Amino acid sequence: MSALAAIIWRDVRLAFRAGGGALQAVAFFALVVVLFSLAVGPDIALMRKIAGPVLWTAALLATLISLDQIWRADREDGSLDIIVETSDALPLTAAAKAAAHWFSTGLPLIIATPILGVILNLPASAYVPVLMSLAIGTPGLSLIGAFASALAVSLPRANLLISIIVAPLYAPILIFGAGASIAGAAGAAQYAPNLMLLGAATLFAALFSPIASAAALRSNLD
Amino acid sequence: MASISELANPQRFEGLAQAVSPYAVGVAFITLVAGLYYALFNSPADYQQGESVRIMYVHVPAAWMAMFCYSSMAIASAVGFIWKHPLADVAAKETAPIGAGFTFLALFTGAFWGKPMWGAWWVWDARLTSVLILLFLYLGYMALWQAIPDKIRAARLAAILAIVGFVNVPIIKFSVDWWNSLHQPASILRADGPTIDGSMLTPLFLMIAAYMALFTAMLLQSMRNELVARRVARLDMAADAATSTLVETPSAASQS
Fold first, then answer.
1. Boundaries of every domain in chain A
2. How does DSSP assign A157-215, residue by residue?
3. Which of B43, B65, B69 has the alpha carbon at shortest distance from B54?
4. Cβ contact (<8 Å) for A155 and B148?
5. Would you call B223 helix, strand, or coil by DSSP?
């Protein structure tokens, strides 16, 4: 257990130091939101309707661009070989790496969301469902992303390939997450079913993507 | 033992494929002609949908094949991954473009059916969305194969992706039951028997047989192509190695 905690702590510290890129994902998140607002124009009524889905799409894209980082640095300096060779249970190690990615990418995105919600004129009733759906859904994004990133770890310039692989796997989380934020913005307390489905998707990812990540890592390193 | 079967199998496969291929092509041709004749001329128009119901005979088998191909690709991937069987890897790899083709056909004909029936080419409905995701899964799988030069590693990684992506197949199947959908639920494979009239089932089953035979013929041919391409690549590499030794050895260079 302490080894897993050490991996998480090390990755989070690396991500927040110079060249780590954790804040780049938040900056990208804000940038997508701003670009979307510029594209939609000053129609506030329209903006209120689409604010939740826009936040979700932007969070997903910001996660997407950060996935390549999960295993690459470890691969390049050789520590990935040591991690794979010495791990008692590689799926748990993969889950720890996904957790570290969430702490350094998913959590900052959630913290930045209320501020960006103001820019997007997000209705007051939608803040809770948007934040809750992001809190439940972004761990799933990190878990699935760690798998896709593990598939491509031995390839140079794999970012586009990772995006192509991971986008269809992200679809359920995006659908339920944005669905919860729309249901909340409509004013009704009808977002609970979407949150439950979202939780189911994340739990499913938590069960299977560490195993798949471990298999992908082993296949990449032999 | 394992290495012998690995060496022998592609040759035995070649023999089997050569024997089966002509029959598959023949069955595909006959059932396609018969099925299209029944579908276009010798079956009734629907009492609600009119003549446009005939799109069903192209659309439904394509949608079935889209899921069938993905399922066989996932099974072949699992076989290839667990038993490290190269022929299963080739089968999985060559199934993907064919399955993607059927998926595209299902979406394309579905759009042409949706326009007159629902009034829209495309709706963001659970069934349509999950089939579109299936198409992207096929494309991602093919992109992964293309990105990795080492065939053995590519096969293992692509197999993992195919198995993970299989989670989408039950979602497609049950999407019409789980969500409110414009798309109609299953009307053939039902516990209480088909709800389609027999006059429409004949062309439908003929077309399904045609698509299956076509899939068999195309898969066998593309697997043979892939095996030959790999053999050529190996021979090229061997030839390259031979020339480079010739150049490096002074006595051999002076002889040439």
1. 2-221
2. S-HHHHHHHHHHHHHHHHHHHHHHHHHHHTTSS--HHHHHHHHHHHHHHHHHHHHHHHH
3. B43
4. yes
5. helix
One digit per residue, the tens of pLDDT, for chain B of length 256 reads 444 455 447 778 888 888 899 999 999 999 999 999 988 887 777 777 777 788 888 999 999 999 999 999 999 999 999 988 889 999 999 999 999 999 999 999 998 888 888 888 888 888 888 899 999 999 999 999 999 988 899 999 999 999 999 998 888 888 777 776 677 777 766 666 667 777 788 888 999 999 999 999 999 999 999 999 988 988 998 888 888 766 655 554 444 4
Q: How far is CA A40 from CA A27, A35, A47, A61, A124, in A?
A: 20, 9, 7, 18, 20
Taking CB atoms and an 8 Å limit, are A219 and B148 in contact across chains?
A: no
Across the interface, of B139, B156, B164, the residue whose CB is closest to A219 is: B156
CA atoms within 13 A on the CB side of A123: 18
- The complex's ipTM works out to 0.89
Q: What are phi and psi of A176, to 5 degrees?
A: -70, -35
Contacts of B142 (CB under 8 A, 6+ apart): B96, B97, B100
> Which residues of A lie closer than 8 Å to B, measured between beta carbons?
147, 151-152, 154-155, 158, 161, 164-165, 167-169, 171-172, 175, 204, 208-209, 212, 215-216, 219-220, 222
Residue B168 CB coordination number (10 Å):
22
| Cβ-proximal residues to B57 (8 Å cutoff; 6+ apart), any chain | B35, B36, B38, B39, B43, B203, B204, B207
CA–CA separation, B138 vs A129, rounded Å? 33
For chain B, the structural domain boundaries read 21-44+197-219, 59-187
Q: How far apart are CA B52 and CA B250, in angstroms?
A: 76
**CB atoms inside a 10 Å sphere around CB B206:** 22
A169 → chain B, closest CA residue: B165
According to DSSP, the residues that pair with B246 across neighbouring strands are: none
- Record the tokens describing residue B51, joined without a space: 């003549």
List, in order, residues 6 or more apart from A46 with CB less than 8 Å away. Answer: A40
The angle, 0 to 180 degrees and rounded to 10, between the axes of the packed helices A44-66 and A107-119 is 160
Q: Please give the Cα distance from A133 to A98 (Å, whole number).
A: 18
